[in-house]
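User: What would this chain look like folded?
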Amino acid sequence: MPTQDEVLTVLKEVEDPEIGVNVVDLGLVYTVDVGDTGDVNVEMTLTAPGCPMHDTIARAAEMAIETLPDVKEAHVTMVWNPPWTPDRLTDEGRRLLGF
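Assistant: Here's the prediction, encoded as structure tokens.
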């Protein structure tokens, strides 16, 4: 089974198309749960609850995770609590956004 770090690594390939920064460095990924049966469950959010790209971003994240060996199925759930704030940005996300 992949590790949480491996899941986060492939999720760095998924960008928020409006911002142009990956979902990990934006701090959008809240939890990663890798099951023994090959299922990976991720809870993530977006920078704004009304973002029209939520389905597209969620599906891109699932497809990225499913490229990992031994992953049977990926499930991404969008959550809105706690709400995203810029405090969740990684150092790399801050650099990419010019903070």
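The CA atoms of residues 8 and 95 lie 19 Å apart. If you want, I can go into more detail on any region.
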